[in-house]
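Sequence of DNA 3'-5' helicase (Stenomitos frigidus ULC18).
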Amino acid sequence: MPVESPAHVSLEQLRDRLRPGQRELALWQGGPLAVSAVPGAGKSTGMAVAAAIAIAQHQLNTRRQLVVVTFTRSAAANIKTKIRQNLKALGLPPGGFVVQTLHGLAWTIARAHPELSGLNQDSVLVTPNQNHRLIRTCVEQWISANARHYQTLLEGRQFDGEETERLRRQSVLRTEVLPALATTVIHEAKSSGLLPDDLRSQSNEVDDPYTVLTIAAGLYEFYQTQLRFRNLIDYDEMILAALRVLEDPAVRQSWQQQVFAVFEDEAQDSSPLQTRLLELLAADPADPMNRDRYNLVRVGDPNQAINSTFTPADPIFFREFCEECRTQNRLATMTQAGRSSRPIIEAANFVLQWVNKSRLAGVEQPFRVQAICPVDRDDPQPNANPVPEGQGLELHTPDDVYQTVERIGQRALQLFKQHPQGQAAVLVRTNDQGRFVAKELHRWYGDKLLVYEVGQRDRQSHVPVEMLTLLNFLDRPHSPDHLKAALTVLVARKRIPTQDLNALVGFPEQFLYPGPLDPLQPEPVIEARHYCNSLLNARLKLPPAQLIPFLALTLDYEQTELATADKLTERIAQQLASNQTLAAILGSLNEIVASEQFEPVDADDAEERYTRLGQLTVITMHKAKGLDWDYVFIPFLHEQTIPGSQWIPPQGQFLGDFTLAEVARAQIRASLHNQFPLPSIDAAWERAKNLKTAEEFRLLYVAMTRAKRLLWLSAARKAPFTWNKPENLQDREPCPALPALMERFPTSVMA
Ligand SMILES: Nc1ncnc2c1ncn2[C@@H]1O[C@H](COP(=O)(O)OP(=O)(O)OP(=O)(O)O)[C@@H](O)[C@H]1O
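Predicted 3D structure, token representation.
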């Protein structure tokens, strides 16, 4: 019998599988195109079809390729599979394209031309821990080179010269304020293409007694020298290195000839420099300056930009690109989405409008005005806009956070009983809240509910770091840095009470072994001292090889964490054989932590683990981006966290009512948007607060739009002041969007 050739579809048939907004993307014929899509619109589905069509129409191959850029590796794997499936459906081989993350793309270009990029075969990517140490070194270097400037910071708003206070301030500046400033500003400036001298000249434009941008410039300069000296590169450096390569006209032209077009997903998360790289690649080699001839398709949702307070991505850039394209009739909007039931869509649309109207984030509007619309009746997506579960939207005001979790558990059990194949998630703002939810669910419902706490699983990677921190302390207990790091771990693991640690580490000896003439220590300090002393005792009594298992027990690790600690002990024992001195263990552990190869988190199957059927996943709102579940619970919607306020740690208030890092960030952003004169400290702090408010509301919007059939929201009347002590309940105001939702959707208000 003859083998039947598989039936192939035509380009039109492939396009017909798309809904209207997606189809515009698939009809792209060249030039720049912005696609602004609502949550659940099917961006990657649309982009994968558009990619296959472009490959087919332009007969792309290894010498002339489509470059698809995504934000994460798992998203890259996902879209690659979809493009291949579409090519197969068209009867084409799986070629003519590459899918890469932005950094992967930059790395490829930089590595291909080491003579131009300045990177050599030995350049390695700096790990987060190495970076942390590097920043600390730069801070020390800056302090020694800038004694007068440092003195100004020490004096802060006012200072009476008292010695203990001086030591406390030194500790705060060295270990908190300056490292935070360096981390923020280096990333912010570098990824915007600014050099230390640019920051210096901007500093002259601001009326600022601390000249924050000058400090930032100094720190940045030391950092760059350190990176070069150690042959390390960071993520921003990769993009800069690729851009250096593309400065060479012949090389640039050769890349432009290879790249037929660039399709970018999640474009709202790109920084200006990343965008510059994509634009260069997408230019027409025959007419490279002509922006109308850039084959650049950028798809994103400015309303889902939730990284702008900790990365230099700013939704303004993507919004500007959308505006530029709109004036040339090159903006497509994907406003139809099939993910959620109608009541959920209505609630999300309402919150978007309400937040913009309420002007809670200053003059800047947090959202682009863009409503989610349900799909047409003949939509290709099976079960699009599914029937809601019950009301689809439930708004609760439990008495306190304990009752909140009890209600979530009850509702989840009920839902799983009716729909054993359903998926559910509790979305929380912080890992602390997640831990609380998981613990309470277990207390109320034991094994009746299958709960998967994402934060707890991910915390595994902290085990080696925590062990190293405590062992460093045991090795040199009188080092203020080691003592502070160890105390920080103990507070985080709730072994000792929260307190201002800077006050303890000024005189480590006096803290650890107070003499009879020393001032009486307050209760929290005594608790911390006893804990530290018991650890030091163990150091004397136990053989070094047993210290890690001992520390793991004393930190009250859970089963999986204990297993991780055991594995770590075994690994070190294998490496050191009989030479298990504390110094040797520290050396080995340092290496393990620096290489970050112990227990790598398996990111690729993460999505599947988070959305298993019959499981209640406890996950942060940030991590939930891009995912969806049938039933989504969002508890603890309190004003204190959403929108919350920019926090000034009390120990840093001697500088003023702001943080240097956020002030510098706001000033740099103002310069990028050409807003001169740059804002003063107070005005910059105001902007930082507005940025945070806007982002928190976008985060709420992202969280709400994860729900397919039921969206359950709540704000308890009483909640803890800090989640470190959940039993300390206080009256709490709800996030202002919640009462507004209750007024608008009264039938969804649950007793
Ligand atoms: N044309 C289509 N035909 C069939 N299914 C579709 C179509 N478009 C989208 N879908 C389905 O809709 C769901 C949502 O799509 P997707 O996750 O790509 O949306 P998104 O726009 O990336 O969402 P978000 O912005 O919230 O991350 C997916 O399950 C996808 O398979």
